[in-house]
Amino acid sequence: MAERGIELKGSSFTLSVVHITDMDIQRVKRQLAEKIAQAPEFFRAAPLVINIEKLSQTPDFNALAGAIKELELVPVGVSGVRDESARSAARAAGLAVMTTGKVPVVQEAPTALLSQPGTKVHRGPVRSGQQVYAPNGSLVILGAVSNGAEVIADDSIHIYGQLRGRAVAGAKGNETARIYCQQLMAELISIAGHYQLSDGLQGSNWEQAVSISLAGEQLKFDKL
Fold first, then answer.
1. What is the pLDDT of residue 13?
2. Is residue 91 a contact partner of residue 42, using CB atoms and an 8 Å limit?
3. Are the C-beta atoms of 32 and 71 separated by less than 8 Å?
4. Strand 188-191 and strand 194-197: pairing?
5. Could you give the CA distance from residue 193 to residue 195 in angstroms, rounded to a whole number?
6. What number of other Cβ atoms are within 10 A of residue 29's Cβ?
7. Residues 169 and 194: beta-carbon distance below 8 Å
8. Residues 6+ apart with CB under 8 A from 222
9. Which of 8, 25, 43, 90 would disulfide-bridge 78, Cβ 3.0–4.6 Å?
10. pLDDT band at 201 (very low <50, low <70, confident <90, very high)
Protein backbone atom coordinates (compact mmCIF):
# COMPACT_ATOMS: atom_id res chain seq x y z
CA MET A 1 0.00 0.00 0.00
CA ALA A 2 1.29 3.45 -0.92
CA GLU A 3 2.22 5.58 2.06
CA ARG A 4 0.21 8.76 2.48
CA GLY A 5 2.29 11.91 2.19
CA ILE A 6 -0.38 14.46 3.04
CA GLU A 7 -3.90 14.84 4.38
CA LEU A 8 -5.93 17.86 3.26
CA LYS A 9 -8.45 18.97 5.87
CA GLY A 10 -10.48 22.08 6.47
CA SER A 11 -9.59 24.19 9.47
CA SER A 12 -9.92 27.74 10.75
CA PHE A 13 -7.38 30.24 12.03
CA THR A 14 -7.56 33.72 13.50
CA LEU A 15 -6.21 36.34 11.09
CA SER A 16 -5.80 40.04 11.75
CA VAL A 17 -7.33 42.29 9.10
CA VAL A 18 -6.01 45.76 8.34
CA HIS A 19 -8.55 48.01 6.63
CA ILE A 20 -6.75 50.36 4.24
CA THR A 21 -8.42 53.76 3.77
CA ASP A 22 -5.47 55.69 2.33
CA MET A 23 -3.60 55.24 -0.97
CA ASP A 24 -0.43 56.64 0.63
CA ILE A 25 1.43 53.42 1.47
CA GLN A 26 4.08 55.14 3.61
CA ARG A 27 1.37 56.74 5.73
CA VAL A 28 -0.33 53.37 6.09
CA LYS A 29 3.01 51.84 7.14
CA ARG A 30 3.58 54.53 9.79
CA GLN A 31 0.13 54.10 11.29
CA LEU A 32 0.45 50.32 11.28
CA ALA A 33 3.85 50.60 12.98
CA GLU A 34 2.20 52.67 15.73
CA LYS A 35 -0.35 49.90 16.29
CA ILE A 36 2.37 47.25 16.41
CA ALA A 37 4.31 49.27 18.98
CA GLN A 38 1.37 48.93 21.38
CA ALA A 39 1.66 45.10 21.41
CA PRO A 40 4.85 44.04 19.61
CA GLU A 41 4.84 40.40 20.76
CA PHE A 42 1.25 39.91 19.61
CA PHE A 43 2.01 41.19 16.11
CA ARG A 44 5.44 39.61 15.65
CA ALA A 45 5.39 37.53 12.41
CA ALA A 46 1.57 37.62 12.50
CA PRO A 47 -0.37 36.74 9.32
CA LEU A 48 -2.33 39.69 8.00
CA VAL A 49 -5.21 40.17 5.57
CA ILE A 50 -5.43 43.51 3.71
CA ASN A 51 -8.96 44.83 3.25
CA ILE A 52 -9.27 47.42 0.44
CA GLU A 53 -13.06 47.81 0.19
CA LYS A 54 -12.88 51.48 1.24
CA LEU A 55 -10.37 52.42 -1.47
CA SER A 56 -11.66 54.00 -4.68
CA GLN A 57 -8.68 52.66 -6.68
CA THR A 58 -6.61 49.48 -6.72
CA PRO A 59 -3.43 49.97 -4.67
CA ASP A 60 0.06 48.83 -5.63
CA PHE A 61 -0.13 45.41 -3.98
CA ASN A 62 3.60 44.73 -4.39
CA ALA A 63 4.53 47.96 -2.60
CA LEU A 64 1.85 47.45 0.04
CA ALA A 65 2.91 43.87 0.76
CA GLY A 66 6.55 44.97 0.86
CA ALA A 67 5.80 47.69 3.42
CA ILE A 68 3.95 45.19 5.60
CA LYS A 69 6.81 42.68 5.41
CA GLU A 70 9.23 45.40 6.53
CA LEU A 71 7.19 45.57 9.74
CA GLU A 72 7.82 41.83 10.25
CA LEU A 73 4.23 40.92 9.44
CA VAL A 74 3.19 38.27 6.90
CA PRO A 75 0.66 39.50 4.30
CA VAL A 76 -1.30 36.41 3.26
CA GLY A 77 -4.27 37.78 1.35
CA VAL A 78 -6.52 40.63 0.35
CA SER A 79 -10.26 41.09 0.84
CA GLY A 80 -12.80 43.63 -0.34
CA VAL A 81 -11.71 43.20 -3.98
CA ARG A 82 -14.46 44.17 -6.42
CA ASP A 83 -13.14 43.63 -9.95
CA GLU A 84 -11.11 41.10 -11.90
CA SER A 85 -8.20 43.43 -12.64
CA ALA A 86 -7.66 43.98 -8.91
CA ARG A 87 -7.90 40.23 -8.29
CA SER A 88 -5.25 39.61 -10.94
CA ALA A 89 -2.98 42.30 -9.45
CA ALA A 90 -3.34 40.78 -5.97
CA ARG A 91 -2.50 37.30 -7.21
CA ALA A 92 0.49 38.62 -9.15
CA ALA A 93 1.79 40.05 -5.86
CA GLY A 94 1.50 36.61 -4.26
CA LEU A 95 -1.62 37.44 -2.24
CA ALA A 96 -4.65 35.20 -1.91
CA VAL A 97 -7.99 36.81 -2.80
CA MET A 98 -10.26 36.23 0.17
CA THR A 99 -13.91 36.78 0.99
CA THR A 100 -15.41 37.79 4.31
CA GLY A 101 -17.46 34.62 4.53
CA LYS A 102 -20.73 36.51 4.79
CA VAL A 103 -23.52 34.53 3.21
CA PRO A 104 -26.77 36.32 2.35
CA VAL A 105 -29.87 34.92 4.01
CA VAL A 106 -32.10 33.55 1.27
CA GLN A 107 -35.69 34.59 1.81
CA GLU A 108 -38.69 32.72 0.48
CA ALA A 109 -40.71 34.28 -2.30
CA PRO A 110 -44.25 35.24 -1.23
CA THR A 111 -46.84 32.69 -2.36
CA ALA A 112 -48.96 35.46 -3.87
CA LEU A 113 -46.07 36.47 -6.13
CA LEU A 114 -45.45 32.92 -7.32
CA SER A 115 -49.11 32.40 -8.18
CA GLN A 116 -49.62 35.76 -9.90
CA PRO A 117 -50.93 35.35 -13.48
CA GLY A 118 -48.27 35.87 -16.13
CA THR A 119 -45.39 35.32 -13.71
CA LYS A 120 -42.67 32.90 -14.77
CA VAL A 121 -40.85 31.09 -11.96
CA HIS A 122 -37.36 29.62 -12.40
CA ARG A 123 -36.29 27.34 -9.57
CA GLY A 124 -32.57 27.01 -8.95
CA PRO A 125 -29.54 29.00 -10.16
CA VAL A 126 -29.23 30.58 -13.60
CA ARG A 127 -25.81 29.45 -14.78
CA SER A 128 -23.21 31.19 -16.93
CA GLY A 129 -24.29 31.28 -20.58
CA GLN A 130 -27.94 30.59 -19.69
CA GLN A 131 -30.79 33.02 -20.48
CA VAL A 132 -34.22 33.00 -18.85
CA TYR A 133 -36.94 35.20 -20.39
CA ALA A 134 -40.45 35.97 -19.15
CA PRO A 135 -42.48 37.40 -22.06
CA ASN A 136 -45.47 39.60 -21.20
CA GLY A 137 -44.99 39.21 -17.46
CA SER A 138 -42.69 39.16 -14.46
CA LEU A 139 -39.87 36.75 -13.67
CA VAL A 140 -39.07 35.17 -10.30
CA ILE A 141 -35.67 33.50 -9.83
CA LEU A 142 -35.49 31.20 -6.80
CA GLY A 143 -31.70 31.10 -6.76
CA ALA A 144 -28.65 33.04 -7.86
CA VAL A 145 -27.87 34.53 -11.27
CA SER A 146 -24.25 33.67 -12.13
CA ASN A 147 -21.68 35.75 -14.01
CA GLY A 148 -22.35 35.44 -17.73
CA ALA A 149 -26.04 34.56 -17.19
CA GLU A 150 -28.94 36.76 -18.27
CA VAL A 151 -32.48 37.15 -16.93
CA ILE A 152 -35.04 39.16 -18.93
CA ALA A 153 -38.67 40.09 -18.30
CA ASP A 154 -41.17 42.37 -19.98
CA ASP A 155 -42.27 43.39 -16.47
CA SER A 156 -40.41 43.10 -13.14
CA ILE A 157 -37.68 40.70 -12.02
CA HIS A 158 -37.46 39.23 -8.51
CA ILE A 159 -34.21 37.43 -7.65
CA TYR A 160 -34.10 35.49 -4.37
CA GLY A 161 -30.33 35.16 -4.33
CA GLN A 162 -27.20 36.87 -5.66
CA LEU A 163 -27.37 38.81 -8.93
CA ARG A 164 -23.95 38.51 -10.58
CA GLY A 165 -24.98 38.39 -14.24
CA ARG A 166 -27.28 40.64 -16.28
CA ALA A 167 -30.88 41.58 -15.44
CA VAL A 168 -33.10 43.32 -18.00
CA ALA A 169 -36.58 44.36 -16.80
CA GLY A 170 -39.21 46.22 -18.80
CA ALA A 171 -37.71 44.71 -21.95
CA LYS A 172 -40.56 46.04 -24.10
CA GLY A 173 -40.46 49.52 -22.61
CA ASN A 174 -42.43 49.16 -19.36
CA GLU A 175 -41.02 52.02 -17.28
CA THR A 176 -42.86 50.89 -14.11
CA ALA A 177 -40.93 47.59 -14.04
CA ARG A 178 -38.56 46.96 -11.14
CA ILE A 179 -35.64 44.71 -10.30
CA TYR A 180 -35.44 43.18 -6.83
CA CYS A 181 -32.43 41.16 -5.65
CA GLN A 182 -30.96 39.97 -2.38
CA GLN A 183 -27.36 40.79 -3.26
CA LEU A 184 -26.42 43.21 -6.04
CA MET A 185 -23.17 42.22 -7.79
CA ALA A 186 -24.41 42.56 -11.36
CA GLU A 187 -22.56 42.88 -14.65
CA LEU A 188 -25.46 44.96 -16.01
CA ILE A 189 -28.93 46.03 -14.97
CA SER A 190 -31.48 47.62 -17.26
CA ILE A 191 -35.05 48.90 -16.98
CA ALA A 192 -36.90 49.95 -20.13
CA GLY A 193 -33.61 50.50 -21.99
CA HIS A 194 -31.95 52.55 -19.24
CA TYR A 195 -28.94 50.61 -18.03
CA GLN A 196 -25.95 50.69 -15.75
CA LEU A 197 -22.80 48.55 -15.91
CA SER A 198 -20.88 46.89 -13.09
CA ASP A 199 -18.35 49.73 -12.69
CA GLY A 200 -21.13 52.21 -12.00
CA LEU A 201 -22.91 49.90 -9.54
CA GLN A 202 -20.01 49.40 -7.13
CA GLY A 203 -21.01 51.99 -4.57
CA SER A 204 -23.05 51.90 -1.37
CA ASN A 205 -25.59 49.48 -2.89
CA TRP A 206 -23.00 46.89 -3.96
CA GLU A 207 -23.53 43.49 -2.31
CA GLN A 208 -26.75 44.81 -0.73
CA ALA A 209 -30.39 43.76 -1.00
CA VAL A 210 -31.99 46.38 -3.23
CA SER A 211 -35.04 47.39 -5.20
CA ILE A 212 -34.25 49.15 -8.47
CA SER A 213 -36.75 51.35 -10.28
CA LEU A 214 -36.77 54.05 -12.94
CA ALA A 215 -37.12 57.71 -11.93
CA GLY A 216 -37.28 59.81 -15.07
CA GLU A 217 -34.29 58.58 -17.05
CA GLN A 218 -32.22 57.53 -14.03
CA LEU A 219 -32.12 54.23 -12.20
CA LYS A 220 -33.11 54.59 -8.55
CA PHE A 221 -31.83 52.25 -5.83
CA ASP A 222 -33.60 51.55 -2.53
CA LYS A 223 -32.25 49.14 0.06
CA LEU A 224 -34.60 46.37 1.13
1. 57
2. no
3. yes
4. antiparallel
5. 6
6. 17
7. no
8. 210, 211, 212, 213
9. 90
10. confident
Phi, psi (degrees; rounded to nearest 5) at 86? -70, -40
Query: What distance in Å separates the CA atoms of residue 103 and residue 148, rounded to the nearest whole number?
Result: 21
Rounded Cα distance between 25 and 79, Å, is: 17
Report pLDDT digits (tens) over 123-149: 889 998 899 999 999 999 988 998 889
DSSP reduced 3-state for 176: coil
What letter represents residue 25's amino acid? I
Mean pLDDT value across the chain: 84
In whole angstroms, how far apart are CA 105 and each of 42, 143, 145, 209? 35, 12, 15, 10
Taking the CA of residue 73 as centre, how many other CA atoms within 13 Å lie in the half-sphere pointing to its CB? 27
Q: What's the whole-number mean pLDDT along residues 56-72?
A: 91
**CA distances (Å), 3 to each of 6, 8, 10, in order?**
9, 15, 21
Q: Which long-range contacts (CB under 8 A, 24 or more apart) does 17-20 make?
A: 17/48, 17/49, 17/50, 17/51, 17/79, 18/48, 18/49, 18/50, 18/51, 18/68, 19/51, 19/53, 19/54, 20/50, 20/51, 20/52, 20/54, 20/55, 20/59, 20/64
d(CA 113, CA 12): 41
